[in-house]
């Protein structure tokens, strides 16, 4: 996250969202000379991206496209599309960082994008990309994001179970509820729950 202004000072500096209170966003700045957290009005902030980041377009005319950032011009990103291999220009507010890769293929036999799967080694995960003869699956590993290439024969079945669980504050949450991530590399993101299985929550960004 970049701050455009702080008081009368212009600050072009990165920071991480700690929490959001109405219109104020509490940022942990990268600059050591600033306080540990700085409260800034949301209108004074913009998303920060760098060339090499992998993105998904979540709104606008290019919604659904994925690709790698190759150029940043203020609030406009140039992205190399995964599917067309062409450059597309989008506003930074319309994209999020994402592991998902659009290929144009969304289904093989009975399995399709975003299905929750049980694999033959009793692992489980969500399909985030469909290739010609296999799937890229985001596994239910809590410690770190783990994506594996999975072939049809390695899939036991599609999981349809719908569970709920309690969040940090003992509130019950279930599929389709919108949650805010409080810890980890995705801290600050707010997205709907796609699946819940064995205490692991998959959110859709």
Please state the structural category: mainly beta
Reported CATH architecture of the largest domain: Roll
Q: So what's the CATH class of the largest domain?
A: Mainly Beta
For the record, the count of structural domains works out to 4
Pfam family, one: KOWx_SPT5
InterPro entries: KOW, KOW_Spt5_2, KOW_Spt5_3, KOW_Spt5_4, KOWx_Spt5, Rib_uL2_dom2, SPT5, Translation_prot_SH3-like_sf
Organism: Gossypium barbadense (Sea Island cotton)
Protein name: KOW domain-containing protein
Please name the defining characteristics of this protein.
SH3 type barrels; 0% helix; 205 residues; mainly beta; 5-stranded antiparallel β-sheet; 4 domains; 22 strands
Descriptive account of the structure:
This is KOW domain-containing protein. There is one protein chain. This protein has four domains: 2-46; 54-97, SH3 type barrels, CATH 2.30.30.30; 107-158, SH3 type barrels (Roll), CATH 2.30.30; 164-203, no CATH class. It starts with a strand and ends with a strand. The protein is globular and about 55 Å long. 16% of the residues are buried. The model is unreliable at 4-12 (pLDDT under 50). It is built from no helices and 22 strands. The strands form six sheets. Strands 4-3-2-1-5 form a five-stranded antiparallel sheet, with no helix packed on it. With 205 residues, the chain is an all-beta fold. Helices cover 0% and strands 49% of the residues.
